[in-house]
UniProtKB/TrEMBL annotation:
Organism of derivation: Micromonospora viridifaciens
InterPro entries: DUF3152
Pfam families, per database record: DUF3152 (PF11350)
Biased composition (Low complexity): 53-64, 74-88
Region (Disordered): 53-88
Residues annotated as domain DUF3152: 95-259
Name used for this protein in its record: DUF3152 domain-containing protein
């Protein structure tokens, strides 16, 4: 996602001793079992060449990616795995390679129309082949729930949104993609960290969907922000800056990269009104990790 007329910089970071040795051993065994059972793994790494069959067409101009002059981060292996949430069964882990197959599974179900007035836009939802632990239909329902929330873009009477099926005409597509595929679809292969909007493609980086960012302690809230921010670009919104220290960030602020005194906010509308800030963006570095 970036300046007008150019690509924009579009877009987380625990026993006691007992009275007898036998009881102590039992407690330790249970504790170890719980710790092991509660762990989730996120697989990273390259996996084959990027396939082109079934890949939605890329729209090169006006990509809204998050680009910056420098990059700094911890190694990818230092980030803890995060439990799968939203659109997947409890206990399911989300695994993905750095580079997916390049083809996508598209949700076939159709939602109702969200919003009470305004222009109607129809959208599809798709998940890249190679991402495991995310079924496309539940993921599509989660995207739809976010976009239908009255705190979102459909709450003010300016926009109506409806999810359509694979073969239906659509105004844009929400794609959950692996980091390398994200770079290609966003026309910025140097960035495997953020998400973007490129033409009629809203590209959600699965690495951010799984890990979030350190300054968003609530992963569900970050996911809501991610959908609303990138879809906001498709609706014609540009980047905005923090309004005041301690206040909620505008949803069009690049919160993936920094808050700049604001507090995390996932929604376009705050306290019943559209919450905006001054146009512009910060020169935040993009972390190099996935």
């Amino acid at each position: 996602m970036g300046r007008r007329g150019k690509r924009e910089r579009g877009l987380h970071r625990r026993r006691r001793a007992s009275r007898a040795s036998s009881l102590t051993l039992l407690v330790l065994v249970v504790a170890v079992g719980l710790a092991t059972g509660g762990a989730y793994a996120v697989r990273r790494g390259a996996a084959g060449l990027l396939a082109t069959a079934g890949t939605p067409a890329t729209t090169p101009p006006q990509a809204t990616n998050d680009r910056a002059r420098s990059a700094a981060s911890r190694p990818a292996g230092d980030r803890p795995a995060v439990p799968a949430a939203g659109g997947v069964a409890a206990g399911t882990e989300i695994t993905y390679p750095a580079r997916g197959k390049g083809s996508f599974r598209t949700a076939t179900t159709v939602s109702g129309v969200a919003g009470r007035g305004g222009r109607l836009l129809r959208y599809r939802v798709a998940v890249e082949e190679g991402i495991a632990g995310v079924d496309v239909e539940p993921f599509a329902r989660q995207v739809t729930a976010i976009l239908a929330d009255p705190r979102g873009w459909t709450g003010g009477g300016e926009w109506r949104l409806q999810r359509v099926g694979r073969d239906d005409p659509a105004d844009f597509t929400v794609l959950l993609a692996t980091p390398v595929t994200r770079g290609r679809l966003c026309a910025d292969t140097s960035d495997h960290y953020t998400s973007c909007r490129n033409g009629d493609q809203v590209v959600i980086n699965v690495a951010r969907w799984v890990h979030g960012v350190p300054h968003f302690p609530d992963l569900a809230q970050y996911r809501q922000y991610l959908i609303n921010h990138e879809v906001g670009h498709r609706l014609g919104r540009e980047h905005e800056r923090c309004t005041r220290a301690g206040g909620p960030a505008p949803v069009m602020q690049q919160q993936t990269l920094g808050l700049h005194g604001c507090t995390p906010n996932a929604w376009p509308r705050v306290a019943g009104a559209l919450h905006t800030g001054p146009r512009g963006q910060y020169d935040d570095p993009i972390p190099a990790e996935h």
